[in-house]
Design goal:
The chain is an alpha/beta fold. The protein has one domain (11-406): TIM Barrel. It has helices spanning 26-29, 37-43, 60-73, 85-88, 97-112, 128-132, 141-156, 172-179, 190-214, 237-259, 305-315, 333-352, 396-407; strands spanning 4-5, 11-12, 19-23, 78-82, 116-120, 163-168, 219-225, 228-231, 267-272, 275-278, 321-326, 357-363, 382-385, 391-394. The radius of gyration is 20 Å and the shape is globular. The structure holds beta-D-glucopyranose.
């Protein structure tokens, strides 16, 4: 694509028409999603699995009109959100009209505020009934999911669904839920991990077919978190083998499936946060970040180079790429601006080098429920004051991000265009 020159002769890092926005997921922002496996997971064993339950989250179920107006006002031209399966299909085969009406209105509101919706049909939470039947390990799991996705397309319609993300992080769900045991169903079983991982690759393909059966206007893709996985001790054979094996499961298996062809969608979603160094002598076999590196409130290393690796890997599929998540949990908003700066520079370089990246969505629009870690890790460009009626407070990083959106230039983040 190369660097782009505007009429005024100023070089842009990002082309006109680039999609800019922020991402969220239903369970993390809506509140009271009490019919899902996650809701149960938050409450079982006296709450032992989570820092705190999600409760009202940021009450976006009720406050979406103001929230979407806020994001549109911050210059975003796209917004990624998810629809909650457990609300839409509360019992097998029974679809809830009111919940569909709600999301129709949410998406109309996104559009009315000048933003293109990116709609995820499954972001970590399962209806309680689906989980009770064995979740992704049930024989007909993929088929059931595809039936739901087709219903979403039929009821919400292609105009509200210009972009659909079929599965959010098909590798993270099995990793956290079936191998590390920190997400529901809380298992630690390698065979189940592999089985769920493959089921979720199939779920993507089946969802693409389901969407196509309803409309050819919906542009769809899967959203892969491509972690920079490395051996902690490059000289150690055990670490090297472990890293190679996890890379196969966490990225190559999914990328191979996409490269294998057939209808695998129209784009690939790339999600990237950090590097993970694998150490076979530890349990779990994950090394802490190297001494002295910058880290985030998640304890994750800031490692922008990993984003380039993720883009290079995803580009081998041969479809356009959208960065559907990238962001930082921090209590220091100036660190957020630095993170954006280093990561957006990587994206700009990748575009200059010919990688077809068409959009960037920061994780996250708002502070939200960070799964097992609860509310302390604050990812939002809009902070939520949990002691003051969930008041939204726009941080300076949101204004800095807006300048990038308006100018198409990374340096506008730190040097306001004048
Ligand atoms: C998920 C988000 C999550 C974020 C930060 C991604 O794995 O899609 O739901 O909040 O990372 O942990």
């Amino acid at each position: 694509m190369g660097a782009c020159v505007t009429l005024a002769g100023v070089t842009r890092d990002f082309p006109e028409g680039f999609l800019w926005g922020a991402s969220t997921a239903a369970h993390q922002v809506e509140g009271n999603n009490d019919n899902s496996d996650w809701w149960d997971w938050e409450l079982v064993d006296g709450g032992a699995h989570v820092h705190e339950p999600s409760g009202v989250a940021i009450d976006q179920w009720h406050r979406y009109r103001d929230d979407m107006a806020l994001l549109g006002g911050l210059g975003h031209n796209a917004h990624r959100l998810s629809v909650e399966w457990s609300r839409l299909e509360p019992e097998p085969g029974r679809f809830d009209d009111e919940a569909f009406d709600h999301y129709a209105d949410v998406l109309d509101t996104v559009l009315a505020n000048g933003m293109t919706p990116f709609v995820t049909t499954y972001h970590f939470t399962l209806p309680r009934w689906f989980a009770a039947r064995g979740g992704w390990l049930a024989d007909d799991a993929v088929e059931r999911y595809a039936t739901f996705v087709a219903e979403v397309a039929r009821r919400l319609g292609a105009e509200r669904l210009p972009f659909v993300c079929t599965v959010n992080e098909p590798q993270i769900i099995p990793l956290e839920g079936y191998l590390l045991g920190v997400f529901p169903p809380g298992h630690e079983d390698f065979d189940e991990f592999q089985a769920a991982n493959r089921a979720l690759a199939s779920a993507h393909r089946a969802a693409v077919a389901a969407l196509r059966s309803v409309s050819s206007d919906i542009r769809t893709g899967t959203c892969l978190q491509l972690i920079a996985l490395e051996p902690a001790r490059p000289d150690d054979e055990g670490d090297r083998e472990l890293a190679a094996m996890m890379r196969r499961e966490m990225s190559e298996m999914h990328l191979d499936d996409l490269r294998a062809g057939g209808d695998v969608g129209d784009w690939v979603g790339v999600q990237y946060y950090s590097r993970t160094r694998l150490d076979s002598s530890r349990q779990p076999p994950i090394a802490p970040p190297p001494e002295g590196v910058e880290t985030t409130l998640m304890g994750w290393e800031v490692f922008p180079e990993g984003l380039r690796r993720a883009l290079d890997d995803a580009a081998t599929v041969g479809l356009p790429l959208y960065i559907t998540e990238n962001g930082i949990a921090t209590a220091d908003d100036t660190q957020r601006v630095r993170y954006l700066d280093s990561h957006l520079r990587i994206v700009a370089d990748a575009i200059r080098d010919g990688i077809d990246v068409r959009g960037y969505m920061y994780w996250s629009a708002f502070d939200n429920f960070e799964w097992a870690r609860g509310y302390p890790p604050t990812f939002g460009m809009v902070a939520i004051d949990r002691d003051d009626d969930l008041t939204r407070r726009v941080l300076p990083s949101a204004a800095a991000y807006r300048r990038v959106i308006e100018t198409g230039r990374v340096d506008a983040l730190t040097a306001p265009a004048g």
